[in-house]
Amino acid sequence: MPVIRLTPTTAKLLQAGALFVIVLAAGSPAGAQSSKAKESAEDRGRFAGTYRCMRLEMDQKMAPCQSPPLTLNEDGSYQIWGEEGSYELVQNRWLILEHSQRRGLGQIVSAREIVFEYRVGSKRCKVTFQRVFDPPPGYSLS
After folding, report:
1. Can you say whether the dihedral through the CA atoms of 61, 133, 102, 36 is positive or negative?
2. 20 Cα distance to chain centroid
3. What pLDDT digit, counting tens, does each position of 32-59 carry?
């Protein structure tokens, strides 16, 4: 087998190339997915809670809001309208409810407010949910 002799400059270039490959691999989709999973878990913790229907507009007219509460759990599951499933947060701006056919996409206005806009027949509906904060144990709001 022939012996390859490297000049100091070539050896440094090969070392730099190897380092580049290692850095590139660290920034690969696999590395990004683990970072994304961590961020998603943190985000779910920030948005987890119960949200009460505060406002319902149908064709820009107010209507009684009789929706049950929306519950977002830290494990990524949700419950509302007799549905249970998982949810996804997208860029901390959108909430996607996986099993909801009509109301699957909600706009996250803040950690306290989520708005769903959808159509029922020819009517445009807008439902606003606000987060319910329970007092700490031992405290009462009355």
Report:
1. positive
2. 32
3. 444 454 457 777 888 999 999 999 999 8
Please report which helix (H) or strand (E) contains residue 86, including its range.
strand 83-90
Q: What domains does the chain contain, in order, with CATH numbers?
A: 44-132 (2.40.128)
> Which distant-in-sequence residues (6+ apart) come within 8 Å of 71 by Cβ?
49, 50, 51, 78, 79, 80
Quick one: pLDDT at residue 2? Answer: 53
How big is the chain by its Cα radius of gyration, in Å? 25
For residue 52, which amino acid is it? Answer: R
User: Which residues partner with 57 through β-bridges?
Assistant: 62, 126
Closest CA to 117 of 108, 106, 109: 106
Structure tokens at 74: 């830290």
| C-beta atoms surrounding 70 within 10 Å | 25
**What is the tens place of the pLDDT at every residue in 59-84?**
889 988 888 999 999 999 999 888 88
pLDDT exceeds 70 at position 98: yes
CA 124/CA 45 separation, integer angstroms: 31
DSSP H or E stretch at residue 32: helix 29-47
- Percentage, residues of the chain above pLDDT 70: 67
